[in-house]
Amino acid sequence: MGYFLGLITVLIALWLGLSWDYSLKPVIASLGAVSIVLSAVLAYRFDILDREGSPYGRLIQLMGYWLWLIVEIFKANWVVIKACLRSTLDINPALVKVKTGCESDLARTVFANSITLTPGTVSVEIEGDKILVHALYEEAAGPGAFDEMDRRSREASDGRRKS
Amino acid sequence: MTEVMEFWNAFRPALGSALVLVGAVLAVIGTVGVLRFPDFYTRLHAASVTDTAAATLAIVGMALLAPSLAIVVKLAVVWLFLFLTGPTSSHALANAAHTAGLQPMIGRLGEDDGGSQ
Amino acid sequence: MIGVAALALIIAIALMLVRALSGPTLYDRVLAVNSLGTKIILLLGVIGFLTGRPDFLDISILYALINFVATIAILKFFRYRSFQVSLTRRDRGGSQ
Lengths: 163, 117, 96
What we know:
By secondary structure, chain A is mostly helical.
């Protein structure tokens, strides 16, 4: 039920933000209400209203993680931009297996998406607690390179119960 | 305080246009990388420059140019969608290519063995 | 300056079309089309500001959604040759 209310709140906020119509004229407001209720009912019917589908309880932690991730993304971008512009091609691609300590599906999704979002590394496949990562530079994906991201995504989505 | 606000209001459009321009140039750089890199997996990295840095800089620049808050909210929604769907489609592409048996090139690559594939 | 940015984005789109047309594998083409979509989203926003009609942003939101769905749909079709397959791991006997 909490997930349902969270989804409804987010949908209302999204509708108000996009339409920017607070006058609540009957026609427009009823169209908005119908679309919000329809989306919520469809989400319930699709059975995606669980911890992954609406992780609003950990929104603040996830936002903090996101701010850290944006800085990392810009640092990693610089490397890839230099690789694109160098007059002679000089790259060292590698496939590595990264072991993750994330246990819940949400934490694993956040971790794998962060790896993909950082330019220079792409998560190719997830098997159990190992993630196959393709990296543009082998040095950037060496042992321990993802430890901090792993720890932070685990703390952001699961809390600090286990260190 | 009003002087600071006046300076900011005069400076804002210039900063916004400059950020949009930097974002567009980064998009061109990412495209050049996609054209130059030798195999599919490395091209994926170059394309993600466009998806992340170029999109962020251009959208922040447009938000600085925006006349009203409604526009800023819409830009934020575009940015959020790009950041949520971008890694998902990148991962889907990489996973599909890997499942189909496309082998990545491994090891240090110079100009000699690049570009031929 | 915004005009120059729009021009740069158009150049990037044209270059990306080269990769989409010449890409040796299917995945290169899908990647090029997906990246093309991102640039078109940015270009729509820039055009909106260039012409003083930020309503173009609504179109770019829609484009972002359709671009994502199209990429996933193409990949799903070429993997299973059908849209009538569930993408979740449940039906493959996984642990999820």
